[in-house]
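Quick one, tokens below:
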């Protein structure tokens, strides 16, 4: 219970401290919806100091108003000074039955993810006889949802409860929870059924691709050439920490390159001399355009094969387009001709 604005039941209270444990003021109330109990809070803080709080609520001012006998997952976003960036908002889009026990995490871009256990779902764990499922929902840093709830658990017998979530610098997500049985060795054998700990790893879902072309069909020693490399992200997710590589062959000398990203994506602008080994961030629908200038070495023979690649930290659903090669035969330089004056 709190001393203000909580007419019925429990509230969510917070207190802000600096890194030395010294408080910035007194407790303050997080929830603006004050009817009935607000329970089981969780908090996560981003690299910029902004933070988000999630909790379970009996009713809400959103679509999950408790009329279907359930609880909702509510959230509120604050800046680093603990000033609220708007009112409570509802995390769950599936509103039948209880949504309980949230956990929240913030990624490197300030976007956040919330997980909870749900009595039913839109997924395979429909709870007709099987109990609770583990649900996840993603939001960007402006608290706009990135799709609906989705189900974490693939094992759907018995209850799946009490989740916790974490996200790495590369955007990989791990969710753990308590499960009544499992598809593994902890499977309720010998007539008794205990609780196992289950986990699932999710990576950003994004299809990266790269193209590589110098616009020529053959090369000759001493020729100045330009390669254009285009890296694209077909989405649906943003990807952080991918690596673009082009280790130029010995037949090319004096290499220098620049990169131009589409808005919101990031790469090394340059100019940079030598090979491309660039760690990049690429938003869904975004592109990076590399321009590499080089000269074909004197005395080079055979052909010039230049291969560029893009590599995601968590793998790619379509790796066939993660590499591109431009292969051109070398032809001799035209022989110099010397004109003689007429006699």
């Amino acid at each position: 219970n709190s001393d203000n604005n909580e007419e019925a039941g429990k509230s969510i209270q917070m207190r802000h401290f600096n890194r030395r444990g010294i408080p910035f003021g007194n407790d303050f109330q997080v929830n603006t919806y004050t009817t009935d109990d607000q329970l089981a809070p969780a908090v996560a803080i981003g690299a910029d100091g902004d933070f988000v709080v999630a909790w379970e609520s009996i009713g809400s001012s959103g679509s999950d108003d408790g009329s279907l006998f359930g609880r909702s997952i509510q959230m509120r976003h604050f800046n680093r000074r603990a000033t609220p960036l708007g009112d409570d908002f509802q995390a769950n889009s599936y509103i039948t039955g209880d949504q309980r026990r949230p956990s929240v995490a913030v990624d490197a871009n300030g976007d956040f993810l919330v997980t909870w256990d749900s009595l039913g779902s839109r997924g395979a764990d429909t709870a007709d006889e099987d109990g609770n499922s583990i649900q996840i929902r993603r939001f960007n840093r402006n608290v706009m949802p990135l799709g609906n709830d989705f189900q974490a658990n693939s094992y759907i017998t018995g209850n799946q409860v009490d989740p916790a979530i974490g996200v790495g610098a590369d955007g990989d997500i791990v969710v753990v929870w308590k499960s009544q049985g499992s598809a593994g060795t902890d499977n309720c054998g010998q007539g008794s059924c205990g609780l196992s700990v289950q986990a699932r790893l999710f990576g950003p879902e994004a299809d990266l691709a790269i193209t590589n072309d110098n616009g020529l069909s053959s090369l000759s020693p001493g020729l100045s050439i330009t390669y254009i490399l285009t890296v694209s992200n077909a989405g649906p997710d943003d990807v952080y920490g991918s690596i673009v590589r082009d280790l130029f062959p010995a037949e090319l000398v004096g290499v220098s390159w620049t990169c131009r990203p589409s808005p919101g994506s990031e790469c090394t602008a340059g100019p940079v001399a030598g090979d491309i080994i660039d760690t990049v961030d690429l938003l869904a629908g975004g592109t990076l355009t590399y321009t590499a200038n080089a000269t074909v070495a004197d005395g080079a023979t055979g052909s010039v094969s230049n291969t560029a690649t893009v590599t995601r930290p968590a793998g790619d659903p379509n790796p066939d387009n993660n590499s591109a090669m431009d292969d051109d035969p070398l032809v001799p330089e035209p022989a110099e001709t010397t004109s003689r004056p007429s006699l």
